[in-house]
Protein 1
Amino acid sequence: MPHILIAGANGQLGQALAARFASSAQLTCWTRPRYDIADPSIADAVAAVSPDILVNAAAWTDVDGAEDAPDFAFAVNALGPKYLAEGCARCDAALVQISTNEVFAGTAGRFYHEYEQTSPGSVYARSKAAGENAAASVLDRLYIVRVAWLYGAGGNNFPTKISAAADRHGALRVVRDEFGNPTCASDVAAAIAQLIETQRFGVYHFVNDGFASRYDWAVELMRLTERESLPVSPINARDWPRKSVPPPHAVLVNQAGSALGITLPDWRDALRKYVRTWLNL
Ligand SMILES: NC(=O)c1ccc[n+]([C@@H]2O[C@H](COP(=O)([O-])OP(=O)(O)OC[C@H]3O[C@@H](n4cnc5c(N)ncnc54)[C@H](OP(=O)(O)O)[C@@H]3O)[C@@H](O)[C@H]2O)c1
């Protein structure tokens, strides 16, 4: 059994990883505040644990909040992966660094493969791109796994927010001109479990198959939760002002994983399963 260390084990992906590896690995789960990845001494802690594989699911994920606190965002999202990679280098562990579709500019109509140049816009996106580069500057045994529009158990994610807004207001206004890949954390965890068997280090895009606008995603969620009659009005992103400007079309293509036989289900099937399991429908 491999020894797997999960940093950020209380997050959406961290919880999905812990569930996925519960019976197939020796598991060490790190949570804050005891294990803060922005503390340089975390490298010593990694070397002391000496796992076979470290999966870094910890991150500052408050995309709008990062605009006002760039130093904190970079400390966690850029320096954190560097310290973890340094620890891995000292004990010959592999690192799975989780990153984001937002490292791409998201030009309208574009679909982004793993080999394309990053062009991050927001503070959060720049901190995550810096985290990819910082880990790569230290470690060869590195998988960079970019995900998008993630949702999972216990998360304050788009499906739970939209569901709550539907209950509260009886109607929804949802952005129609921002596109991405809605992606279930448990499918990413399963794909990572397959990936680490391959020992093929590099960049991967693990997203549920297909893509959607926020509006499409909300309409599908209403259908699956038997609220088809609830009015959902499409609006433009400019009518939903945010501190950060999200990439309009940062849609990822899973080319590298598919070539190894690692594919994720269609986003609608994944959402149906999530709704049944977690929302008890
Ligand atoms: N959510 C998305 O839509 C999305 C999209 C694309 C990429 N991603 C990426 O996917 C990964 C997982 O995201 P997620 O949605 O699972 O995030 P999440 O639910 O927000 O979980 C992040 C976890 O990181 C922990 N954390 C924050 N700062 C830390 C620090 N300094 N030291 C140690 N732990 C710290 C948090 O701890 P607390 O529990 O104490 O807050 C939380 O448990 C991240 O790399 C994220 O950038 C997410």
Protein 2
Amino acid sequence: MPELHANPDWRGPLPTATGSITFVDALQMMHDSPDLRPIGRIAEASNASFLCEITSGLQVIYKPTRGELPLWDFPEGSLAAREVAAYLVSDVLALGVVPPTILRDGPAGEGAVQLWIQHEGVQRAVDLVNTSNDVLRRLALFDAIINNGDRKGGHILPLADGRVLGVDHGVTFSTEPKLRTVLWAWRGEPFSDEERDALTRGLQMLSVGGTLRATLAPLLHATEIEALLQRLSTLRAADRFPEPTPDWPPLPWPLV
Ligand SMILES: Nc1ncnc2c1ncn2[C@@H]1O[C@H](COP(=O)(O)OP(=O)(O)O)[C@@H](O)[C@H]1O
Ligand SMILES: [Mg+2]
């Protein structure tokens, strides 16, 4: 496997099929585009997900709320908002591990719209997981924070510059511990300074009057925001990656 870039710019421009674009520009274009034109259906998706083109020619994935399959453990029609909440947490904590994601109207009604990323493919992601590559620590921390119930190989997008992004964050932010992931290699390991900083930042931004609290309020239930604050605080106090809980399956199925 080729060596990864030692210190990639996590918030730098993202690769797309038509060139690279900054987070800010992508958000603006996705928001402003009058068009959201379906050009394909994502076959491997578990919910109705469409590859779409917006006016600028950028490609996005569109997951209409109406196409969400009901789940026993999440309120109906809440997955798209969770996708957006996950993006906001990644952004506010300066992690840069989620492609720009917004809620907006589309041909099948409101849904999550996320920038479609040009990545190195799932085999590369699986290789990184199998060799416990430290570049994945950032995503492992993010998953512990958002309580991700579905981090499988196919939800990890490796970029050519060494970054790894995560997608499919619909089953997140439950008030119950549901961390289910292929990224357990760092369980029990102490956090780095950078990881500590991300947690501290999250705690500040989620405090009463903090900006993250205000942006998450329309997307998550108040009890889920409190649970997020509690997870940040527990992780910061433990100062190490969490261990799996015995009463919840620790691995997603299938793994990829
Ligand atoms: N933003 C994205 N950029 C590139 N590929 C993506 C993106 N989002 C999803 N994918 C690809 O599409 C597949 C299906 O999307 P996913 O978000 O998992 O849908 P679902 O919620 O229906 O399972 C993913 O496994 C991944 O390979
Ligand atoms: Mg999926």
